[in-house]
UniProtKB/TrEMBL annotation:
This is histidine kinase. It catalyses: ATP + protein L-histidine = ADP + protein N-phospho-L-histidine. PROSITE patterns: HIS_KIN (PS50109), PAC (PS50113), PAS (PS50112). SUPFAM superfamilies: ATPase domain of HSP90 chaperone/DNA topoisomerase II/histidine kinase, PYP-like sensor domain (PAS domain). Keywords: ATP-binding, Coiled coil, Kinase, Nucleotide-binding, Phosphoprotein, Transferase, Two-component regulatory system. It comes from the Bacteria. The keyword Coiled coil applies. GO terms for cellular component: membrane. Residues 632-722 form the Histidine kinase domain. GO terms for molecular function: ATP binding; phosphorelay sensor kinase activity; protein dimerization activity. Residues 10-80, 129-202, 258-328 form the PAS domain. Its EC number is 2.7.13.3.
Length: 734
């Protein structure tokens, strides 16, 4: 009886604990069906115990957390080991509750899992606090963490660790060593050595480390770690914070680089550079300034800048210096300085304001010694001999260019002459990449385009002041001579190199044929343009004047008749010039395409020929480039010319056919034909050699057949793409 009483007391005790604890105790079976839930469940989540018991335990878990929690539940059953996890629950009113659950399987006598007990604690307020901390850390770009004494796992680590280190928090919570994978090797060595030794002795650490998790980029963090010790001095844990100081470090490095660059420019500048305070007293200067002025640098402190200037120039220099300080903008001035024992020196000084924290702090001066140049300018103004010397120079230069055979010689000769004749600081030939034309607006430089290579080629002249008008005219004339020669010399050098390569490789220079035909077409186009724009327009004007005169003035019948004859003659001349222009440069050839242009040519030829023209085209799918269209068009023109002059044919047949990556053109007439071997000289006169060369320049092949009384026949194959070595078209021609 006493035993039963003890048992009842024991059960009562468990009941009191279960019903009065603030944590929720849930008992579920293997199917995750709730078999028991403590009373605190209703207080925390708003559901009644009757509502929840018998439900699937996961029904009140949000869908985005459900699979993860179910997986942990299954893991506890499979491994028969407890698990701890955090997730969310849906309150009966729809709000979200954050909880931490400790899940433990309950085994039966056979060692199988019969139930699972979960002790669930409401951690919503803690989560809010953690989120507030995360927000604070995010705003200051910092991460807070705490580890046990052996650094085997984090007891706390803020989510902001990922932004700083590049590693997600969940990856390093139980493997803090992973953080070292993203730290610079040198800093890792320091952490594992010096820093570890200090922490082991309970000494706080404050170090800057580098993160390398972003490829090609270094980020900096300040690591602050404090050991936490109990009352016996034993380390229990380590608390730390990592501050992202990347922008600060970059600013420091940029400032350091800027200071070094400024120091280098200041000390190594070929021009004299100095600084003065707002009262006009020297602060410092470089070696070039000492050389220009003759004043030792150690003698400059407490010396006034104006005392260096000639008395007559005091007012102008003082005025410019005052403007620089007032308007806070750079200004230039030319003046004379006193150089003890060496007389005066004429210098150009550029004053530049110095700012510190947005306030004017002093003035920089850049001194250029222009004594010699100014003397030359004054001598030029005073003497007419300067003009004569420039004229002689340009004559000599133009004569010398006749003997220049290379581009480099031409460039060197131009640089030499400019240096010799003009008052310049430096002269060079520069290839300026397109898109960098902004440098052409430099006030201290003259850039003149002289040629085109892969990039535009410029003559760059550095000056201190504008050239005189006669100097500008001399320079313009010299550059004009060079520009005329430049392209030709460049082309000749390129041709010579390619010819040498052809001779070395024993190849037929087909490109030469292409070049000659291009030059020929260019001349045809120029001639056509000249005829159309000058002669033809003049004839039309005179025709209209004559027509107007005849219509508005009374003449005798004989004079009137002669004027009409003159008008008709002018119309014939205008018509003939138009025909000539069309033949020299067929209008709309490239726009209309080869087939339509040929049809137009045949329509015109039929008006003047005594033979029938039959033309067909098919399968012309591959596009032709300009050289191919123009080349085939010229070949057809030559064949029609031969047919009109020599063949005595009554019918001419032409076909244009596309064949894979080639185009096949055939010509055939029923004329008198000829013996090819006997009349070889005549073929050249007839233009047959020109046809062969045209085809060769197009990388094609031509076959000509003819015999007395058997007509004249031509087959031409031209690739629509560049043929590879070894390609042959004989099978098509046959």
């Amino acid at each position: 009886m006493n035993y039963d009483h003890d048992v009842i007391n024991e059960d009562e005790k468990y009941k009191i604990v279960a019903e009065n604890t603030s944590d929720i105790i849930v008992l579920v079976d293997n199917e995750a069906i709730v078999r028991y839930v403590s009373p605190s469940f209703q207080q925390t989540l708003g559901y009644t115990i009757k509502e929840y018991e018998g439900m699937d335990a996961f029904d009140i878990i949000p869908p985005e957390d459900r699979d993860r929690v179910r997986s942990s539940h299954f893991q506890a059953i499979q491994t028969k080991t407890p698990v701890v996890l955090e997730y969310r629950l849906i309150h009966s009113q729809g709000s979200i509750i954050h909880v931490e659950a400790r899940v433990k399987p309950v085994l039966d006598r056979d060692g199988n899992v019969k139930y699972v007990v979960a002790v669930v604690r409401d951690i919503t307020e803690r989560k809010k606090t953690e989120q507030l901390l995360e927000n604070i850390l995010e705003s200051v770009n910092a991460a807070v963490w705490s580890t046990e004494k052996d650094f085997s796992y984090y007891t706390f680590c803020s989510e902001s660790i990922e932004k700083i280190s590049g590693i997600p928090r969940r990856e390093i919570m139980f493997k803090p060593i992973r953080l070292h994978d993203h730290i610079h090797p040198d800093d890792n060595e320091m952490l594992m050595g010096e820093v570890k030794n200090s922490l082991d002795r309970g000494i706080p650490v404050n170090k800057v480390i580098r993160f390398i998790h972003v490829e090609g980029e270094t980020r900096w963090g300040r690591l602050i770690v404090h050991p936490y010790m109990d009352n016996t001095g034993t380390i229990e844990r380590f608390d730390g914070i990592i501050l992202d100081i990347t922008e600060l470090k970059r600013s420091e490095l940029a400032l350091e680089e800027s200071e070094q660059r400024y120091k280098s420019l200041f000390e190594n500048n070929l021009d004299g550079v100095f600084s003065i305070d707002l009262n006009g007293y020297f602060v410092n200067a470089n070696q070039a300034f000492e050389k220009i002025t003759g004043i030792k640098i150690d003698q400059l402190p407490d010396r006034c800048f104006i005392g260096l200037i000639y008395d007559e120039d005091h007012m102008s220099v003082y005025h410019i210096l005052s403007e620089v300080m007032k308007k806070q903008e750079p200004r230039d001035v030319e003046c004379r300085i006193i150089r003890s024992g060496y007389g005066e020196k004429i210098v150009n000084i550029t004053f530049v304001p110095i700012f510190l924290s947005g306030e004017l702090n002093g003035v920089h001066g850049i001194v250029k010694d222009i004594t010699e140049r100014k003397r030359e300018e004054m001598e030029l103004i005073q003497s007419e001999e300067r003009y004569k010397s420039l004229q002689q120079s340009i004559n000599r230069f133009s004569n010398d260019l006749a003997n220049v055979m290379k581009v480099t010689e031409l460039e060197n000769r131009l640089i030499e002459e400019v240096k010799k004749v003009l008052p310049v600081n430096s002269v060079s030939i520069e290839e300026l990449p397109r898109g960098h034309e902004s440098v052409l607006r430099n006030m201290n430089e003259i850039w003149i385009k002289i040629a085109e290579k892969e990039q535009p080629v410029y003559l760059r002249i550095e000056i201190n002041q504008s050239l005189l008008k006669i100097e500008e005219e001399w320079l313009e004339t010299a550059v004009h001579y060079v520009t005329i020669l430049y392209d030709n010399l460049q082309l000749i050098e390129d041709l010579m190199k390619r010819l040498e390569d052809m001779v070395t490789n024993n190849q037929t220079p087909k490109w030469m044929l292409k070049l000659l035909f291009k030059l020929s077409e260019k001349e045809r186009a120029l001639l056509s343009s000249d005829l159309h724009d000058s002669v033809l327009q003049d004839l039309i004007i005179w025709y209209r004047k004559l027509e107007s005169l005849r219509s508005s003035t009374s003449f005798s019948e004989e004079t009137h008749g002669k004027l009409i004859q003159i008008e008709e003659g002018l119309l014939d001349a205008i018509h003939q010039i138009r025909i000539t222009c069309n033949e020299l440069r067929p209008p709309f050839l490239l726009k209309m395409g080869l087939v339509e242009s040929l049809k137009s040519l045949f329509s015109y030829a039929r008006m003047f020929s005594n033979y029938e023209i039959e033309f067909s085209s098919m399968n012309l799918e591959n596009p032709l480039h300009e050289d191919q269209i123009l080349g085939i068009y010229r070949i057809v023109q030559e064949l029609l010319n031969n047919a009109s002059k020599h063949s005595k044919a009554s019918k001419v047949t032409m076909k244009l056919t596309g064949y894979e990556e080639h185009i096949h053109f055939s010509y055939s007439d029923n004329g008198v034909g000829m013996d090819l071997s006997v009349f070889e000289g005549s073929f050249k006169h007839m233009g047959i050699a020109g046809i062969k060369n045209r085809v060769l320049s197009l990388e094609g092949e031509v076959e000509i057949k003819s015999a007395p009384q058997e007509g004249f026949h031509v087959n031409i194959i031209v690739p629509t793409t560049t043929p590879q070595k070894g390609d042959h078209y004989g099978n098509i021609i046959g």
